Amino acid sequence: MSAIPPSTSAAITDCDVLIVGGGINGCGIARDLAGRGFRVLLCEKDDLAAHTSSSSTKLIHGGLRYLEYYEFSLVRKALQEREVLLKSAPHIMWPLRFVMPHDPSMRPAWMVRIGLFMYDHLAKREVLPGSRAIDLRSHAAGEPLKPQFERGFVYSDGWVDDARLVVLNALDARAKGAEVLTRTRCVSAQRDAGGWTALLESADGGQRTVRARAVVNAAGPWAESFLRGVAHAAKGEALATRHLRLVKGSHIVVPRLFKHDHAYIFQNPDKRIIFAIPYQDDFTLIGTTDIELKGDDPGAARIGQDEIDYLCTQASRYFEKPVIPADVAWTYSGVRPLLDDDSGDPSAVTRDYMLESNTAAAPLLSVWGGKITTFRKLAEDAADEVGRMLGEARPAWTEGAFLAGGDLSDWIGAAARPDDDFERFVAAVRSKHPWLDAALARRLTRAYGARISKVIGDARSMAELGAPVAPGLHERELRYLQDEEWACSADDVLWRRSKLGLHFTPEQRERVGAWMQANASRQQEAISCN
To answer: How many whole angstroms from its chain centre is CA 107?
Structure first.
């Protein structure tokens, strides 16, 4: 079990690779490198997925709109990854059908058909069905829309629980030998000919010195500032860096706007698109915006009233019942760290990634850009490059591998289709644990997959799950999240490890916070939270 260092300085820790940043890219790279046998230490100044990686639109998608910007390589790479990811963790990712109502004032139907044909054929599909035209006057997806939308198109992509995806990578990294430190900031990293000496500081002021052969800068929105202020070359000067464009993307969550299980993609007069997606059973997720940040702290990004108004207005262009700001139950915002490619429109800035190697002395790899769909391929490319820089090329292994909890074979036998496999898994869990409340069983199987056995343990009744701290959230699950998944606060539990905060009252959320605080001392025996 990885632990944050105590409040007294510890002996120097040796590792092959120090990774700075606990978002999807950092955790994905840690998993890949650890699986290749490298000694890995990852540090994250906050919680895992505390920022950009828990604030996405939560889609595993090729990015249909990027075809208009001629980003064919990016779209193909993302399309190739969709089914790889869906098979790796069928509990937190699943196929999703999208409806595009046709608005002749936006794009002609022939152009949409060509785009969807390319989307269907740029990469091989085994699980996801292709696109087709539909009559919205008779299709269920047409019911909540304004009657002027008579035609539409349906195509496939996937859904992901983004914050849990990060945690699953961290769990897999740790299982393969990596050390994962949350609430631990890299204060300085000094480079010399033989390696890096980094000073790590935990939230309580405890310090640890790390000696690493290589450093991976996966700090996301802070990648540029890491090179400018934390990492230093042999003579102490700051390392040269690239310029990031920090683009805020905000989302709103409103009470459920439609009953069917499809999502919508809406074209807007400003040539942007927004999604309206079924969310947490009782809600609809609408997003996203693209607002460039100028000199603001990425960690302080919050939705503006203008963004709420924009999302409501654009959704109301399509839905028969207007979406108004008073409907908004929750919002979240994330900052995308995009490489500056001189595009005037933030929406047009490439979402592709770039890996930059610096081998003037001890190896340094910086990760620029990227999107959640391509994280596995990014991590594989990064691990290849780290191995090359260290002179120890080791084979890739993650394509076809399961993420933590994704291997359901002990419950259902051989895998078939990810969506069908999950339903068979739910039935198997219900059969083995008939005492488990049906709604709770589905939530736990969705969140933990095959690791549900670690959550339930030897419990044989609902009472043995411990007292319910809030509706459907029992003490045994909270202890698991503390001991196994680096959860330290109510926010970690309610908004990242789960989205239960959306379903709880303020008083219920406070009870979860009080429980976490009251049990922090017990948790420190396994993993210190500070």
So the answer is: 31
β-strand partners of 98: 155, 263
Query: Nearest 5 degrees, angle CA 361-CA 365-CA 371?
Result: 170
Q: What is the bridge-based pairing of β-strands 273-279 and 132-135?
A: unpaired
Taking alpha carbons only, the member of 217, 224, 214 closest to residue 186 is 217
Judged on CB neighbours under 10 Å (0-12, 13-18, 19+), 323 is buried
Angle between helices 24-35 and 375-390 (to 10 degrees): 50
Contact call for residues 214 and 18 (beta carbons, < 8 A): yes
Burial letters for 217-249: b for 16+ Cβ neighbours within 10 Å, e otherwise? bbbbbbbbebbeebbbbeeeeebebeebbbbbb
Q: Are 260 and 140 in contact (CB under 8 A)?
A: yes
- The count of other CB atoms within 10 Å of the CB of residue 213 is 20
Strands 244-255 and 364-369: unpaired
Nearest to 98 by CA among 130, 123, 55, 66: 130
Closest-CA residue to 234 (of 186, 201, 187, 194) = 194
User: 3-state DSSP call for residue 304?
Assistant: coil
Q: Residue 373: helix, strand or coil by DSSP?
A: helix
Name the residue with tokens 């699980």.
127
Q: Encode the chain (530 residues) as per-residue pLDDT tens digits.
A: 333 333 344 567 899 999 999 999 999 999 999 999 999 999 999 999 999 999 999 999 988 877 877 788 888 888 999 999 999 999 999 999 999 999 888 888 888 899 999 999 888 888 899 999 999 999 999 999 999 999 999 999 999 999 999 999 999 999 999 999 999 999 999 999 899 999 999 999 999 999 999 999 999 999 999 999 999 987 766 787 888 889 999 999 999 999 999 999 999 998 899 999 999 999 999 999 999 988 778 988 999 999 999 999 999 999 999 999 999 999 999 999 987 765 556 655 666 788 999 988 899 999 998 889 999 999 999 999 999 999 999 999 999 999 999 999 999 999 999 999 999 999 999 999 999 999 999 999 999 999 999 999 999 999 999 999 999 999 999 999 999 999 999 999 999 999 999 999 999 999 999 999 999 865 555 554 54
CA distances from 391 to 196, 241, 316, 394 (A): 17, 24, 57, 10
- For residues 203 and 520, give the distance between their C-alpha atoms in angstroms, rounded to a whole number: 14
Question: d(Cα 263, Cα 284) in Å, to the nearest integer?
Answer: 9
Among 494, 449, 495, which residue's Cα sits nearest to residue 472?
494
Q: How far is CA 36 from the centre of its chain?
A: 23
What does pTM read for this prediction?
Answer: 0.94
What are the backbone angles phi and psi of residue 325, rounded to the nearest 5°? -55, -30
- Quote the tokens at residue 112: 């949409």
H or E element in which residue 465 lies: none
